Sequence to fold (127 residues):
Amino acid sequence: MNVNYIPTVNEGHYPHDAGWTEENNQSILLLSIPELKNIAHQVITVFDYAWLFDRNLNAYIFCFRIEEEEHAIIFQFTHAGKLLMEKEAYDSFAIAITGAEFSEMTEHTPYLLLPSIQLNRQPVAGW
Fold:
C-alpha cells in the first residue's frame, strides 16, 4: 500500500446491501455494489486506499486504487455508515465487494477482497 495515495475520484457508489461477517477470526465488511461487478472477480495483492469524510453528505468515503483504476464507496451516516460504528470497524478488517445481491449469492459468487483496512476516524465527523 502506498501511504501517499491521494484519491482523485469524482464519483462514488452507495452499497445496495452491506453487513459484517467473519472468516478465520477476521472481520469482513461484505458489500453488494452491482455497479462494481466488473472488479468482483479480480484477485489482488497490491492496492492503495484512503478514507475521506464529506461534511455535506455526512459520510465517510472509502477510496481505493487497483493498478491505475480508482473507485469510491460512500458510507453515509444514515445508511451503510451505521456499520462503521459497530465494534468490528474499530480494528483492522477486510472489505469484500460483490456485484451480486445478497439474496442471490452462493458459495461460487465472485468477490473482490481488500484485506487489512483501518478506518481513520475524523474528529469533525463526530461518529
